[in-house]
Amino acid sequence: IIDVAKTVGDRLTFTYLLEQMVYNDSIGKTIKERSQFHKILLKELWVFGEKYALGTSDQSLRNLLYAHIKCLGRDELIPEIPPEATEDLARIPDICLFQQICPGYEKYEHLVIELKRPTLTLTKTEVDQIEDYALKVSTNPMFDKSSTKWHFILLGQKFDSYVDMKLKNTTSGDGN
Question: Structure pTM?
Answer without folding.
Answer: 0.82
